[in-house]
């Protein structure tokens, strides 16, 4: 069942989304070679708790941490650890959620440790275009559009660059629960699927691989990796359908809350 949100509930979700945005900004400012993924987790937890919010992920179905931190060939759901020390040129995907007044915000970024100059153009393109695909999908989350419009917009970017599109893990509805109906796939056909309406709130989150789209899960029963060991990138924002169009509730200060088609830079 899809649970539509009132304008007042969307405002509460926006407050949660902005806590998540501030956490990501703190992580982006702090990230450097030699940090562990547990260091990142502690930074995010501090930001969230100082804001009077609660981490969405910690304890969710037994997950032990505030963040999901997925390095290089890890796609999603990596567990922060003092033993995972980041090196220059690593990719690190950081997924963060927070709860404010009973409502969740959820967002993910993929960053290059040490900056763009530490890796290849192929890897920079993977990170940049996965983010671009997220924005192309967000622009389609409008009253009257269909879920297939979102997936098709995301998939078109992957197809242009020959990336594998992860199919087992997709976007989702969000609200009082971290994961609600509907599923929001990163693939689809324009004009197909459920028709979206004002009051929907969903997370759009493409995951693109440099190689095959196939995945496997590690023995920790959380960490999902590429089946061929190729690098992966993951970006996500929470977006509400409002009378004024899509409103990105987790937008950082350098990003538009109300994106116009084609207006969001890809880097």
Task: Explain what you see.
The protein is α+β, with helices and mostly antiparallel strands and 267 residues long. The protein is 27% helix and 25% strand. The strands form 4 sheets. A 5-stranded antiparallel β-sheet has the order 8-7-9-14-15. Strands 1, 2, 4 and 5 form a 4-stranded antiparallel β-sheet that branches. Strands 3-12-11 form a 3-stranded antiparallel β-sheet, with no helix packed on it. It is globular and about 45 Å long.
Name its key features.
alpha+beta; globular; 267 residues; 4 helices; Creatine Amidinohydrolase
Topology:
Blueprint (H helix, E strand, L loop, with lengths): L6 H24 L6 H14 L3 E2 L11 E5 L2 E3 L14 E10 L2 E10 L8 H19 L7 H15 L2 E2 L5 E3 L6 E5 L16 E4 L2 E3 L5 E3 L6 E3 L5 E3 L2 E6 L2 E4 L19
Antiparallel strand pairs: 1-4, 2-4, 3-12, 4-5, 6-10, 7-8, 7-9, 9-14, 10-13, 11-12, 14-15
State the helical fraction.
25-40%
Which structural category do the helix and sheet elements fall into? Answer: alpha+beta
Strand order of the largest sheet: 8-7-9-14-15
* Proportion in β-strands: 15-25%
CA distance, first residue to last residue: 36 Å
- Which stretches are poorly predicted, pLDDT < 50 over at least 5 residues? none
Could you give a short description of this structure?
With 267 residues, this protein is an alpha+beta fold. Helices cover 27% and strands 25% of the residues.
């Amino acid at each position: 069942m899809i649970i539509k949100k009132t304008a007042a509930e969307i405002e509460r979700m926006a407050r949660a989304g902005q806590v998540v945005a501030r956490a990501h900004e703190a992580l982006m400012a702090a990230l450097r070679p030699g940090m562990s993924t547990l260091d990142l987790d502690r930074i995010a937890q501090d930001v969230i708790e100082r804001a009077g919010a609660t981490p969405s992920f910690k304890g969710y179905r037994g997950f032990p941490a505030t963040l999901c931190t997925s390095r290089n060939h890890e796609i999603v759901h990596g567990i922060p650890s003092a033993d995972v020390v980041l090196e220059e040129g690593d990719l690190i995907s950081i997924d963060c959620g927070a709860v404010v007044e009973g409502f969740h915000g959820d967002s993910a970024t993929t960053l290059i440790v040490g900056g763009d100059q530490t890796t290849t153009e192929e890897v920079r393109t993977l990170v940049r275009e996965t983010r671009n695909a997220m924005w192309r999908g967000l622009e389609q989350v409008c009253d009257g559009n269909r879920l297939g419009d979102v997936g098709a917009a995301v998939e078109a970017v992957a197809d242009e660059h020959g990336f594998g599109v992860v199919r087992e893990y997709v976007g989702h509805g969000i609200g009082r629960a971290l994961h609600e109906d509907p599923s929001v796939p990163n693939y689809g056909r324009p004009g197909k699927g459920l028709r979206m309406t004002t009051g929907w709130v969903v997370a759009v989150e493409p995951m693109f691989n440099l190689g095959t789209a196939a995945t496997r899960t590690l023995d920790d029963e959380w960490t999902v990796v590429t089946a061929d060991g190729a690098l992966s990138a993951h970006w996500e924002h929470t977006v509400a359908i409002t009378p004024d169009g899509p409103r990105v509730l987790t937008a950082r200060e350098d990003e538009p809350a109300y994106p116009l088609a084609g207006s969001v830079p890809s880097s």
